[in-house]
């Protein structure tokens, strides 16, 4: 008896995995399907505290807002998308819906990733993807190497070398984000 197997596209496989693994983050980066487990406590607390910092800085009424876990369409390959931990987006970002739960990169002003088990993607693959998508600022709380990296102003699909910040320092969010705020490295790394 023959068994018929249906071949899935990457997008279909991503959808099936997302349904089968609630709470996990499913992304397609450079044509590669990735799955990340739910964040640990310090990771989640870092994101909450970042949001509070933006609220205290007066993001309300600035023409921007912050969101967690929305899809960012990556235009390099047809099915590529990322789901950043935290983003500052234009207030009208919903008008830039591309497909499914993904939004066009032009409405993203800042993307933040707090590393977890997939730290290599955050430090390498996503640097390339976000630069190619033209994301103006990409901040990585690199818990693996105990530092914060800030990439800004991509040109020709690449970011210049990042600014590096150590414990005890603060990261000044670039003016292009639309809100003036300094983020504590210790808070970014530890929650």
Q: Output the structural class.
A: alpha+beta
**Strand residue percentage:** 25-35%
How much is the radius of gyration in Å? 17 Å
Estimated helix fraction: 25-40%
Strand order in space, largest sheet: 3-6-9-10-11-12
Low-confidence stretches: none
Total strands: the figure is 14
| Quaternary organisation | single chain
Order of helices and strands: HEEHEEEEEEEHEEEEEH
Count of alpha and pi helical runs: 4
Q: What distance separates the N and C termini?
A: 56 Å
- Specify the biggest β-sheet: 6 strands, mixed
Shape field: globular
Summarize the structure.
With 191 residues, this protein is an alpha+beta fold. Helices cover 25% and strands 30% of the residues. It contains 4 helices and 14 strands.
Describe the structure in your own words.
The longest helix has 16 residues, at 41-56. The protein has helices at 10-20, 41-56, 119-133, 185-190, and strands at 25-29, 32-36, 64-67, 71-73, 81-82, 86-90, 97-99, 102-103, 108-114, 137-142, 147-152, 163-165, 170-172, 182-184. Strands 3-6-9-10-11-12 form a 6-stranded mixed beta sheet, with helices on both faces. With 191 residues, the chain is α+β, with helices and mostly antiparallel strands. Helix content is 25%, strand content 30%. It is globular.
């Amino acid at each position: 008896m023959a068994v018929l197997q249906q071949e899935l596209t990457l997008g279909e496989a991503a959808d099936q995995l997302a349904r089968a693994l609630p709470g996990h983050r499913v992304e397609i980066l450079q044509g590669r399907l990735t799955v990340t487990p739910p964040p640990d406590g310090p990771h989640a607390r870092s994101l909450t505290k970042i949001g509070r910092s933006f609220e205290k800085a007066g993001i309300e009424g600035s023409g921007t807002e912050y969101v967690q876990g929305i899809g960012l369409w990556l235009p390099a390959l047809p099915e590529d998308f990322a789901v950043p931990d935290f983003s500052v987006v234009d207030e009208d970002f919903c008008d830039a819906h591309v497909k499914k739960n993904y939004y066009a990169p032009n409405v993203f002003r800042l993307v933040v990733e707090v590393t977890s088990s997939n730290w290599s993607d955050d430090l390498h693959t996503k640097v390339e993807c976000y630069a190619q998508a033209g994301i103006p600022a990409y901040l990585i709380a690199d818990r693996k190497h105990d530092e914060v990296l800030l990439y800004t102003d991509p040109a020709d699909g690449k970011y210049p070398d990042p600014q590096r910040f150590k414990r005890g320092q603060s990261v000044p969010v670039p003016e292009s984000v639309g809100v003036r705020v300094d983020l504590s490295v210790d808070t970014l790394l530890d929650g």
